[in-house]
Specification:
Length: about 200
């Protein structure tokens, strides 16, 4: 009898393994289907000189990374933003160094997202870095999300608006300063004068 039970168990093992594999594959398939096609959108990235888009890739936007009330389709963003704003905010472009409106701008106020109006940075955190783009040592808590960016054979930290997912720039550390440098495109920002509000 024990020999018969052992034989049955041996014969059953492949079937059990197959069943387990099938259940695992089904779970992965369900997870993949859950990633809607609207969450896969083409994005561009260009070199820091900001002239030519050199490589196309797909950027995955996780639903929890953006405020759904401020999320829009590509066609809606194109209708709201001018071509240069769209290139930088939605296609992850970069403006030319030293050309941005807020590079050497130091009035007191708040810098909001040019796409959705969410407050991102206070003027008190802005400093002269000489990098050619507006520089801040910190953002308003919760206003900015950080993502790993491996474009162009390097690892950088990309920063985006936490409300609409708009591209802002990158964060750099270890530059001789005790604070990180948020290097932000002027086009991604809109300044609001505190004195007028």
């Amino acid at each position: 009898m024990s020999h018969s039970l052992s034989l049955v168990a041996t014969l059953a093992r492949p079937a059990l393994r197959s069943h387990t594999a099938l259940r695992t594959a089904t779970r992965f398939k369900s997870a993949a289907v859950g990633l809607q096609s609207s969450e896969l959108r083409p994005a561009h990235s260009d070199i820091s000189s900001g002239n030519t888009l050199s490589r196309r890739h797909f950027h995955i936007t996780h639903p929890s990374m953006a405020d759904s009330s401020k999320s829009k389709s590509e066609s809606e963003w194109r209708a709201i933003l001018n071509p240069e704003q769209f290139r930088i905010l939605r296609e992850k472009g970069t403006e030319r160094a030293g050309t941005g409106e807020y590079d050497k701008f130091y009035e007191e106020g708040v810098y909001t997202c040019a796409g959705c109006g969410t407050p991102l940075y206070k003027s008190a955190t802005k400093f002269k870095s000489g990098c050619g783009w507006p520089a801040f040592f910190d953002a308003i808590p919760g206003a900015v999300h950080r993502h790993e960016d491996r474009m162009f054979g390097m690892v950088r930290t990309e920063i985006t608006c936490s409300a609409c997912g708009g591209h802002l720039g990158h964060v750099f550390k270890g530059e001789g300063s005790p604070h990180p440098r948020h290097c932000v495109n002027s086009i991604s920002l809109k300044f609001v004068d505190e004195k007028k509000n």
